[in-house]
Design goal:
CATH architecture of the largest domain: 3-Layer(aba) Sandwich
Shape: elongated
Structural class: alpha/beta
CATH class of the largest domain: Alpha Beta
Number of strands: 16
Number of helices: 14
Largest sheet: 7 strands, mixed
Distance between the termini: 52 Å
CATH superfamily of the largest domain: Vaccinia Virus protein VP39
């Protein structure tokens, strides 16, 4: 089914146009919601398709695949309660990429069919206002056990982004108890324990133990010694660390693993501390560095449990997280702590493998992977509380496909 534009009436007054058109269909038992910027197919067809899918798949909410004006995917539904925070599934991929329904946290725009009983079970009038209205409605219904699906058999064209006002964002956050853009998953797990809000087993189920350093001891040291392309990449990171931290400055290698990059930072005459939550990793880091010679203080390694970092506010000139954020079940909490311990003008350096559709650089140990836009948005959103903003974003091509982000704290 292809999307064909339809005209929307121009308001006769100077009042701002409502974000959503709502039509109740008692015969179908469905409420149809349309974003006013959406360009839809023939109404009867998409309403029939969404209703049929709702009944067949047992969902309370069904939305359409959305395309941007460039013909690529704007969204195949939205995730909010996710390690990456709010993001559009499949954004910028070719239009034909998704061919099966996808379960998501919510549908942010386009067209939606909502089961009437589910719609009436929540405070729909107060929820369905402003640019975050559809997100809020979907989450309220999800909280009561209703599922949200995005289907590819109905396609609409709609602007990819949503730009709520500060007042709309605050109203959403007060209603659900978390920031819609950067949800802290630990706080959500506490608030909604036992609730259908924690539906996504990938992020709220119990993971297997992290056995990487049992299975591949000192793997980074081994690769540095034996694999030329890995050594070149590691040396590039070491050069960046040196460039963004003053000589003899304090640097924190957060998620240091077996300590290779803490070692390389110490070779640059930095006062480097490596912290990791895996005891085997810290043991290997200490063993690998114990016989090394450094121009300044040798690296220090600490075992750190999830939670607040054991450092004072504004303590470090540089915090670097190399191949770490993709392993974190709750990056927002960790990012907040890294920014807290940065000095004014201190810098945060992150490397992570770029997201690729249908694959992962390490499906065993990676929780999720980021696009450049997703990584920048999350860092900047958390950084608002610390006067921190991204200053540089780059990529390393080839086998590693790294994103490299540098952000600086100004206050």
């Amino acid at each position: 089914m292809t999307a064909t534009p339809i005209a929307h009436p121009t308001p006769a007054t100077s009042q701002p146009q409502q974000a959503w058109a709502v039509q109740r269909d008692e015969q179908r038992g469905v409420v149809f919601i349309t974003r006013q910027t959406s360009q839809t197919p023939e109404p009867q067809l998409w309403r029939d398709q969404l209703t049929r899918s709702m009944r067949q798949l047992g969902a309370a909410i069904v939305g359409a695949k959305r395309l941007a004006t460039d013909g690529n995917i704007a969204s195949m539904g939205e995730f909010i309660i996710h390690p990456k925070g709010f993001h559009h599934l499949g954004k910028s991929l070719p239009a034909t990429t998704y061919r099966f329904p996808e379960e998501v946290d919510a549908i942010a725009a386009g067209v939606l069919a909502v089961d009437t009983k589910a719609f009436d079970s929540v405070d729909n009038q107060s929820l369905l206002t402003g640019n975050l209205g559809a997100l809020a409605l979907c989450l309220a219904i999800r909280e009561q056990g209703g599922r949200s699906l995005c289907i590819p058999s109905v396609v609409v064209t709609d602007s990819p982004g949503i730009t709520p006002t500060e007042q709309e964002s605050q109203a959403f956050n007060q209603r659900f108890g978390f920031d819609w853009l950067i949800a802290d998953l630990d706080k959500i797990a506490d608030r909604y324990a036992g609730s259908p809000m924690l539906w996504n087993a990938r992020f709220f189920g119990t993971a297997m133990p992290f056995e990487k350093y049992d299975q591949r001891p000192a793997v980074h040291w081994h690769n540095y010694a034996k694999v030329d392309i890995y050594r070149q990449r590691a040396d590039h990171f070491a050069k960046l660390i040196s460039q963004h931290c003053p000589t003899k400055g304090r640097a924190l290698d957060l998620g240091c693993g077996d300590g290779l990059f803490t070692h390389l930072a110490s070779l640059q005459n930095l006062n480097a501390i490596g912290l990791d939550l895996e005891p085997q990793a810290i043991e290997q880091a200490k063993a690998q560095t114990s016989q090394q010679t450094y121009p300044g203080p040798p690296p220090t390694f600490l075992l750190g449990k999830p939670g607040p970092l054991p450092f004072d506010d504004k303590h470090f000139d540089l915090v670097f997280m190399l191949d770490v954020i993709e392993h974190l079940p709750n990056p927002v909490s960790v990012l907040s702590e890294t920014m807290r311990v940065l000095k004014p003008a201190g810098k945060l350096m992150i490397s992570t493998p770029a997201w690729q559709y249908g694959g992962s650089s390490d499906p065993t140990y990676h929780v999720t992977e980021y696009t450049a836009e997703e990584l920048t948005r999350q860092v900047n959103a958390v950084g608002k509380n610390f006067a921190l903003q991204t200053t540089n974003l780059g990529k390393i091509g080839g086998v590693y496909r790294d994103l490299i982000l540098i952000a600086q704290r100004t206050g």
